[in-house]
Design brief:
343 residues; seven-stranded mixed sheet; 26% helix; alpha/beta; homodimer; six-stranded parallel sheet
Chain lengths: 343, 343
Amino acid sequence: MYKAAVLVSPEEITIEERQEPRLDPNEVLIKVKFAGVCGTDIALFSGEYKVPLPLVLGHEFSGEVVEVGSTLEKELIGKRVVAEINNSCLSYRNKDLCRFCERGLSNHCARRTVVGIVSYDGAFSELVRVPVGSVHVLPPEISLKEAVFVEPLAAAIQTFELVPVNKDDKVAVLGVGRLGTLISAVANSLGARVIAISRSKQKLERAKKFGASEVINSSLEDSVQKLKDITNGVGADIVVEATGTAEGLSAALELVRPRGTIALKTTCGLVSPSVNFTKAVVDEIRVQGSRCGPFDRAIERLKSGTIPVGSLISDSYPLEKVKDAIVAANSASKVLIDLENQV
Amino acid sequence: MYKAAVLVSPEEITIEERQEPRLDPNEVLIKVKFAGVCGTDIALFSGEYKVPLPLVLGHEFSGEVVEVGSTLEKELIGKRVVAEINNSCLSYRNKDLCRFCERGLSNHCARRTVVGIVSYDGAFSELVRVPVGSVHVLPPEISLKEAVFVEPLAAAIQTFELVPVNKDDKVAVLGVGRLGTLISAVANSLGARVIAISRSKQKLERAKKFGASEVINSSLEDSVQKLKDITNGVGADIVVEATGTAEGLSAALELVRPRGTIALKTTCGLVSPSVNFTKAVVDEIRVQGSRCGPFDRAIERLKSGTIPVGSLISDSYPLEKVKDAIVAANSASKVLIDLENQV
């Protein structure tokens, strides 16, 4: 038997005792050590982002493999690992691939479930089963706590996979919460000049440590004029919308230069109000959504130690206190669910 | 003296007698022969698309050069011409270029005015002055009536300059009015499989003649399931939003496949209601605005005679009846203001 924190309806989480699962040959079982609370978890918990419930949340996690479905994978047992969250034809090593996996777009697999988000129980749980193709073994340089950042860092890296950034591009990051901060670090490492925008002085101070070269401490509305001043009236080459709110896109449209790009990262599930797309047409603006990214490259970055992710962790909660953890994450840095230690 | 139809406030047009202008050395004066009514004119006339007034509308036009500001350009006199609508450092042949003209992005010139749209009187007028760099001499194969389509055809071509299309891509065109029909023709010529979507059977019949290989005759909402059926559940590779309404974007987000692209063409000035951008993030969708395009390529296409633009003309009005022409254009094909003939 093991414990799992189940979201049964919006804002209602119960701790369930569950039977250990029987694995299919293409699955492994992971004993969860640490799991992070993400903005998506907050939106799923509140019900703003609607998915089928009941569901065990948690898609940023690290752990240790305790069981494998096939003896072919027995060398994985005992390994410190993280796992990708899109369960696809490829991660299950199916022979019959869907039209997206066929093209290498397994994160968009037509049959996919998503760990802790779409129809697949996640890591706010003592145990989580995942397809074997999703597993990445951690190098010794990365601690299990730091490894929780592999998934969000991969998502930050993906931003600039789909929105190419040139050296010295001015990249405005709207909202420097957990994800916006990681995106600032990635943009900086790609040679961009990062301008962080937030109402929180504290978050902006942190963003500076993660690569922001300039900061604008104001509301979204007031930031428009300030950014124009910084960019000689032109606007940003790229605006990353990572506010976690529905209002960010309208501000981004004002902040970006003609022929510039807005990178959308927010998955709050809310409807954006009052967006005037005539400006996007007149200024020939590109708006590019992006989601999950390359785990191997995120692991390489964490291994290099150049992004101080440990400093993003503000607090830890035991599994029984998942609800408190999610509430705390609303106004904090990265909150962890700690299944390794008594906290 | 010459006559111009001036939009003095929304829905109020007066015919003014004006003095002939004195030209600067970098300008030419065109006697307007034909001008087309565009969706943008309709939105400007109604006040949905707000710009400084009073203004002479009209940005799709052909005519004959009757005066030049510099004897260096005297060979232009008497020539049949069209003119680009973005007045930029480059079109005025300034030596001191703004930061956009410097990069070749003169359609986004920091100092630009736009003929018939932004702070510059347009072609619903007997005479229009334009910067000499905007003028394109027409080849004899193109009639002055057909030449009215150079500007909108260039805009249609621009769609796929910013949204590359691959052979056999499924391109859904949402709204096959004047512009959507031209876009269908361009997409077809680039090797795409064009699926036209409209509530009007008549417009869909026309779209077939312009290159649509399939049509969906339904509301935006109902078209989603029908397009899924046509595309084996995948969705379109590219969705062109050319409805001229604020609602099209939400439908486009439902119609496009993961990692697909939405090309925005509507400049109705209205705010898009209820757009849920979480889907754009999850499905990693690109939304690309585009506006004015390359006149030289549009002229080449018209010269080839492969797009039957003449069949798009539904009616002609004299200058004094501009208001009637705009009202008629709401529910018609291309309506012309005819300054050549008594109509």
